[in-house]
């Protein structure tokens, strides 16, 4: 019997509607062909001696065991899985083709033994993963089908969460710690987490104007998928904003169960500052011509940041006056792409580029 774990409504819509380049991947083949970087001679730093093997991995699909310290790590799924290895200076033997994320070191990527031309939009390339001869497979938050999980488990133990977390409420620290423990690099994982937390504090201290203010961030995917409220109560995006000094927005509680903002509820977008990201200029023009949207106090009082995807530029966004700012990939970090590697970069973009264009009350 196949068990499928459902995702959020908006996540199911993302492959068709996300900003160009935010999670775009190059290539579409599901063959075993890919880019070979050669044999990884020293894939892991020295063991710390804090993890005891055999180590039981408790996953949503059941328990599995690492009999000894892994050496050859395959990684699939979203960018935090690969980021968790990069943060520990661990070079995987297998990874999927990915867009060059702005925070990632391309030289580190070039050392990966096999970068598969399959992408997360394709079927899982079981044959290529098996050919890489991994010890474990890091697949946190990616596998949602028990049959697929079981098939991966015949290749190597699979590292995933103990429970499936629906929606955008994942703590980026958890996956980093799990990878650190599995690889006997727990102290290094904690150091990486601490460095990221310190970097976030530094950004917040550089922007005291955020203290005590409220913020709403949303993305308009157009008429097919609607307007998504990113900074829902206790969600990952809200947590990042409160780390910057913002106060939780009481209106965000209205979108905990469903993050879609209907036309009649546009007034609930209000905050001290409203940031809206649009899939293209046509979507922006349609939203800004809506009388109810224009009546939102943050919009009417010019406390509104309007950002639109740019054709042919997977990393840039355009302000209303046509000026370019960085950070299309930051929209992904706010939802599912948080990691020790991506967070400092994304919050720099939000604080220094997105919010530099608006006067906070």
Q: What is the tally of helical segments?
A: 13
What is the percent of helical residues?
25-40%
Q: Please give the largest β-sheet.
A: 7 strands, mixed
What percentage of amino acids are in beta strands? 15-25%
Brief summary of the model shown:
The chain is 31% helix and 16% strand.
Description:
With 361 residues, the chain is α/β, with parallel strands linked by helices. Helices cover 31% and strands 16% of the residues. The chain contains 13 helices and 15 strands. The strands form four sheets. The protein has a seven-stranded mixed sheet with strand order 11-10-9-12-13-14-15. The chain has a three-stranded mixed sheet with strand order 1-6-5, with no helix packed on it. The protein has a three-stranded parallel sheet with strand order 4-7-8. A hairpin with a 6-residue loop joins strand 9 (215-220) and strand 10 (227-229). Helix 2 crosses helix 6 (172-182), helix 7 runs parallel beside helix 13 and helix 12 (328-335) crosses helix 13. The protein is elongated. It starts with 8 loop residues before the first helix and ends in a 7-residue tail after the last helix.
Question: How would you describe this structure in keywords?
Answer:
single chain, 361 residues, alpha/beta, seven-stranded mixed sheet, three-stranded mixed sheet, 13 helices, 16% strand, elongated, disordered N terminus
